[in-house]
Amino acid sequence: SKLTNLGHLEMTWRSRVRFHPLLVRILHKSRLRYYGKPEKAMDMPYQAYFEVADGSGMTSMVLWSSLCPEWYNSMKVGTVLLLEQYAIKDSYPFKTQPTPGDSQMKRFATMEISLNDRNPPTKISIIPEERVKPEWGLPEVKYRFITRSELDDLPHNYACDVIGLVTFVGRAERARKREHCEDFWLYRWAHAIDGTSDHPFILELFATSQPDVFERIHPMTYLVCTQMRVVRDLTENPSSTIYLTTSNESQIFITGWHKGQPYTKDTKVKNFIEWMKSQSEADQIKKTVIGGYYPFPRPPDNFSDY
């Protein structure tokens, strides 16, 4: 009965120690971050950011330490949470910012909700979707799906979501995070088509906190990638080197993982499914490729240019 909202919290949190329970919906989810160091003895040095919203607006929420292995996989985009005994802190200024699907939504950027296993121990409850009431006024998850025919007109670093049929997936490759360091990013290239263009989406997929999905991307699967960023090599021919890369908030889904996801209601997703129903699976299988080294962007055609 005694609920608060994010708008009220932003105005009053600096003058209070305890806060009323809060009902929010998760709109974005970051990859899990490990911040352990050899010289520091910490049991569970994990952290994950979420963007959560209610009827008054959106803010960041941070899941800390031992709560990460306990809750991270259960907290999906679209999940409704009841939070009690949480803390509120000044927001961290250097974190990445996902692009919201609803550009009109108010953002409370000065604070972030902190969920800890102590001081105070946060109580988290997941509300099943069938028990979420319209009068709570929680926003729906909105997306920015684009088709392949729209991609060529989008600017560098534009945030978007895509769906397509995988026609190529390369082997997993590694890149150093920084020169002379022992940490690596794991990534793979993939192509996906959606029937709106002769060209595929070229996707640079870094391993997110979904290893079960990342390892099972195969040709002929329906692939959804959210919060992707457009990359254009503006020095070369811009149209030939355009591709999409994952961001810190990207989520990847393949056939078998789509059921119940909020994007299944999106018009462009429905249009893609209709197009797929008109295609011959045998014809598409002939065009698929798996594995091998994929140099991209491609080197010039002749050696003197190279």
TrEMBL record:
Q: Name one Pfam family in it.
A: RADX
Specify the superkingdom: Eukaryota
Alphabetically, the GO molecular function entries are: single-stranded DNA binding
Entries under PANTHER family matching the protein: RPA-RELATED PROTEIN RADX
Entry protein name:
RADX protein
The organism named in the record is Neopipo cinnamomea
Q: Which gene encodes it?
A: Radx_1
